[in-house]
Amino acid sequence: MEDVISAYDFSRDQYLEIFSLADEILKGRKIKMKEKIIAEAFFEPSTRTALSFSAAAQRLGMNVIGFSSQEGTSVVKGENLADTIRMMENYSDCIVIRHKFDGAAKFAAEVSSKPVINAGDGKHEHPTQTLVDLYTIFKTFNTIDGLNFGLIGDLRYARTVNSLLRGLTRFKPKSVYLISPPPLKARKEILRELNYEYVELNSPYDVLHDLDVVYVTRIQKERFPDEVEYEKVKESYTIDEKIVNSMRKGSIILHPLPRVNEIDRKIDVSPHAKYFYQASLAVPIRQALFVKILGE
Amino acid sequence: MEDVISAYDFSRDQYLEIFSLADEILKGRKIKMKEKIIAEAFFEPSTRTALSFSAAAQRLGMNVIGFSSQEGTSVVKGENLADTIRMMENYSDCIVIRHKFDGAAKFAAEVSSKPVINAGDGKHEHPTQTLVDLYTIFKTFNTIDGLNFGLIGDLRYARTVNSLLRGLTRFKPKSVYLISPPPLKARKEILRELNYEYVELNSPYDVLHDLDVVYVTRIQKERFPDEVEYEKVKESYTIDEKIVNSMRKGSIILHPLPRVNEIDRKIDVSPHAKYFYQASLAVPIRQALFVKILGE
Amino acid sequence: MEDVISAYDFSRDQYLEIFSLADEILKGRKIKMKEKIIAEAFFEPSTRTALSFSAAAQRLGMNVIGFSSQEGTSVVKGENLADTIRMMENYSDCIVIRHKFDGAAKFAAEVSSKPVINAGDGKHEHPTQTLVDLYTIFKTFNTIDGLNFGLIGDLRYARTVNSLLRGLTRFKPKSVYLISPPPLKARKEILRELNYEYVELNSPYDVLHDLDVVYVTRIQKERFPDEVEYEKVKESYTIDEKIVNSMRKGSIILHPLPRVNEIDRKIDVSPHAKYFYQASLAVPIRQALFVKILGE
């Protein structure tokens, strides 16, 4: 395993290997990778992703350098991305990049001789979030095959959805329901790639009782062309008690977080609510990924 | 010892235990707490406090993650404090929080299953600064009981003063003089809690010769409702040679720092000036606190 | 070796000692300086320099604290530089400072009891970049004496040039050509100090075939009094194929980076292009410097 740019970069077996290594780490297995340095090149702000990569690296005894926004980097002096990446590869053993442009991670991987991990590039992909998502599902149901999925909310601008849809091609979902307001429907070019059945819906109510996994995405203001469109749909897909009450026993609600209003806080205490558990797996799964990429 | 939200969270014995552990650390005792990660959630900027916590953690072999301002956190995406704290607890073993709202640290401690340390919440408290302050006094006089204290300057908006006044309730100060311009008098609700004698004054001159400890606070612009009020009092309480010459032998001047104009730089060389010595104790005392909270 | 403020702070022997220690580190010699903390006080933004110092410290097992811009430091609260430095020395074993004012590093060294390293102060000096530059030359030619140097571009506002010109006084360059547009000529006060021959030119073409080292500097917008003057000269000194084709065999092109338009990207693949190799030496040479200053 070298660069991780897309959820396609893992085979089914590689997903399962990473999950089982994460299990060992959760059970307390100590892996030390001292001397090594992870470079976090975050051209776009993030806390959650950057901090979970930092914590994963440090739990393995590695060090972290990097920046958390474009300001104060040489980019403001007019340096191009290629030169910035060449600098980072000189200083580190692995580059974790977040960038506002689709394809920036792939470009960085072409420039860099060190492994590059995509921590989110524009509206394109966020494959390590998909690792977290699928690992949470796997730990809950002990499988990913044969389950019914409902992806709800912004399926158009959310890179987490693009990566999850692609990651699911490595498994055998029974059915996948894509539930969104029309302006936020999943992109045709992604749907064309899928090797499993999916159904597009405008409302979750008809299928809720069938779903094993309800995957909710934040309706991200910063992804919207204009504020008005954002306000229109913001509230429309809130997961509330009415929705949760019609969910089947044992089914789970996931969310990549951060959330704004998509999930009513009353739901946090529901047995269906697994998004904080999901968040708790962000560090061990990234530890496992680092080990697979950099070796013990 | 679990969360540290207020200077009240330490008993007299706990203060003394932390002081003696800090003494051992200063004498060169090595304590290693590898594997552990400290999360610094600084929603309000700080250098002094954040860097001293980072240095303390690193001296103990621990790692540090976090952010140093609200910008670039998920808060700007609309995430609430509870969710941000739930994220941090997943990534770390202890959360150090600074926030502009009074009570934010207490709220974080209620949400988090990991220990939370208050590094300053609004105008409320700054208990680890009080650890530094009392430790400096203890190392100078070998006691805190029976001393005369003069707190000078902004006693209303300075959280360091609130915490120091509360910390002193664990000891037996002989007398405490609260010296401030009228608009900056200490808050009634704090004074009501005190179990020792105090006197409020508008000028230090009548009592200077009696004071063992002169505790000066920065008149913090950012704490003021309006600029005009700030300018009026800014210069009024400057510690200069005239004041220092009337101080008793062996008495000391402390300041939480940073200072602006409250202490004339000529005073830095005076034997009374202990504020840089005080600053030098910020790291060992926080090392001792981490050990008490997280265990060796 | 204590503070490093100027390229003059190294004797010829000290340059050579640092080079040979860097060689050993590149050959895989492990040096561990655990427990120690490096403080990076970057009052002016930087990625390249700050990250290479961080990587160097971490490769040696040291920890790093600090800040990467003036915002969010106590300076915005009105604290002066001396007090900020006194704080940093309490928290660390060595201070690396970058500041927009000439002489800020020297001032910091006078205040601090801990070693101070100048990571760039205004238009004054950048001595650790000179370590990188001279080390690259030394590794390429196995000497620095007897070579012909051409410094091209902004010789007036670039602190890297000031330090390189001074560093070369410790060696015996055969000839040094200073090639710049008139408004960017090297400063008289520096030229007066030099103990070797130099020639000032407006164009490189007459001497290119004689040069062993072509040292190109970025024409730094932020160093210019006004934008118009910047635009005028920006493109004027671009290293392109025409220039490279007239360079002698074995000669090299160096650049402190970041570059904007001074070197045509087509040149990156030329055997003369050594600026990325130069960048790759930034970490080992700074590791060697830390070892010399702080001891093993």
The CATH topology of the largest domain in chain A is: Rossmann fold
Order of helices and strands of chain A: HEHEHEHEHEHEHEEHHEHH
CATH superfamily of the largest domain in chain A: Aspartate/ornithine carbamoyltransferase
Tell me which oligomeric state these chains represent.
homotrimer
Q: CATH first level of the largest domain in chain A: which class? A: Alpha Beta
Entry summary:
Chain A is of the alpha/beta class. Helices cover 36% and strands 15% of the residues of chain A.
Summarize the topology.
The structure is a homotrimer of 296-residue chains.
Chain A: H1 12-26, E1 37-42, H2 48-59, E2 63-67, H3 81-91, E3 94-99, H4 104-111, E4 116-121, H5 127-141, E5 148-152, H6 159-167, E6 175-179, H7 188-191, E7 198-201, E8 213-216, H8 227-234, H9 241-245, E9 252-254, H10 275-280, H11 282-294
Parallel strand pairs in A: 1-2, 1-3, 3-4, 5-6, 5-8, 6-7, 8-9
Task: For the structure shown, list the relevant keywords.
homotrimer; 296 residues; alpha/beta; Rossmann fold; five-stranded parallel sheet; four-stranded parallel sheet; 36% helix
Account of the 3D structure:
The structure is a homotrimer of 296-residue chains. By secondary structure, chain A is α/β, with parallel strands linked by helices. In chain A, 36% of the residues lie in helices and 15% in strands. Chain A folds into two domains: 7-125 and 282-294, Aspartate/ornithine carbamoyltransferase (Rossmann fold, 3-Layer(aba) Sandwich); 127-279, Rossmann fold (3-Layer(aba) Sandwich). In chain A, the strands form two sheets. Chain A has a five-stranded parallel beta sheet. In chain A, strands 2-1-3-4 form a four-stranded parallel beta sheet, with helices on both faces. In chain A, strand 5, helix 6 (159-167) and strand 6 (175-179) form a beta-alpha-beta unit. Chains in contact: A-B, A-C, B-C.
